[in-house]
Design brief:
The protein is mostly helical and 501 residues long. The chain contains 23 helices and four strands.
Amino acid sequence: MLRKASVPTASNGKYSPRCSKGRSPSLESGQLAPEGKVALKQKVTLLRGISIIIGTIIGAGIFISPKGILQNTGSVGMSLCVWAACGLLSLFGALCYAELGTCIKKSGGHYTYILEAFGPLPAFVRVWVELLIIRPAATAVISLAFGRYILEPFFMHCEIPELAIKLITAVGITTVMVLNSTSVSWSARIQIFLTFCKLVAILIIIVPGVIQLIKGETQHFKNAFAGNDASVMGLPLAFYSGMYAYSGWFYLNFVTEEVENPEKNIPLAICISMIIVTVGYVLTNVAYFTTISAGELLLSKAVAVTFAERLMGNFSLAVPVFVALSCFGSMNGGVFAVSRMFFVASREGHLPEILSMIHVRKHTPLPAVIVLYPLTMIMLFNGDLYSLLNFLSFARWLFIGLAVAGLIYLRYKRPDMPRPFKVPLFIPALFSFTCLFMVALSLYSDPVNTGIGFAITLTGVPAYYLFIIWDKKPKWFRKLLVTIILQILLEVVPPEEDQKS
């Protein structure tokens, strides 16, 4: 018998999540589920946590086109400063999430923190936009980069057919979905391998760059801050591009309940990962400028390939392969983490109940993983993906800023909450202000696209009242929510803690 879905309610101004009733507190607090139970297991070690963060942050951008920052800063020196500053600012955000992850030991990331601080409506809007648009579009975009670069060595002297790119991309997406549906352990192991490949790819660029510096190839660093002056609008847009390149530091918080010893491993994984990524990004850009001038970088379609062709000869063929593996790692890490947001949102009653069920043998959140598959494939073959991402890029920073602002709010609302890891208050204040500033800037600089994205986000409000609050739904509507057939086909059941309710 399936458990009856209930609606999150508010009493005395406090949100009472569905999972607080009839659920063993072990799962909520991040304790390991007893062996043999049908539940998600704590299989994310410190090394796997680092690989999730690094493997998701480092995608195709650092290898293909870091020109957005250079274009908006106007000089080599200022662009390197912005790369370093964005790394520091991202570290601030990651430290805030480390505190949130150690005091709220539930999976779900942004969704869970907004839910705890501000209640169900903004949390539902966040997961609504993520499920319908942001995650399918983001997965499709990074997958297209994978498809293009895995085929690059076979089409060195001609244009790659678009159909071939999309077919290979579809195979890549399917592989990621199958992998994450089959085994948490294998998904994490492959993520470690792919993270190693990403770091090797960065070293392939950094080491020759250092050799060039030793040889005295510093002509492109002379008068490094000379050039076109950054405009008042350009500098903030450069930060926007940089923050996008670093985005991904929050993904470990999506799987908090599956992290071993989260009080220790979450902060450690976040700090180690951000230091590695920041140093790697800055040194990679320094390496580019040892061989490529600022003007040439702005004209290049794939900076890493241009760099490799000039210094490595035939070995440059390896660079597209490493870029493809980097993209595959971002696909795998993103699906692994975001599926847990859908799992938790379903557990709280904000998404269909089937999404909070687990495969009886594999112990993976199978429905929460594959729910992305049809939407991603539709966008891959039919959608204007880059427009969708432009519409909703502001939504990511709006809700991240809101989640970090929730940290400040919880300091005063719940001062007695255990906080094994605590950051100085100026860090969340500065980071949340920066996020909200970028959101306001996007409204000013691109009102049309941002306005469309804002309107799409607002559709979550009527959806919340229709699907969650309204409890007098017609019989035909309720039948649409029946999960028994899917449960039998997918061989999934609620976690055993839920079955007791």
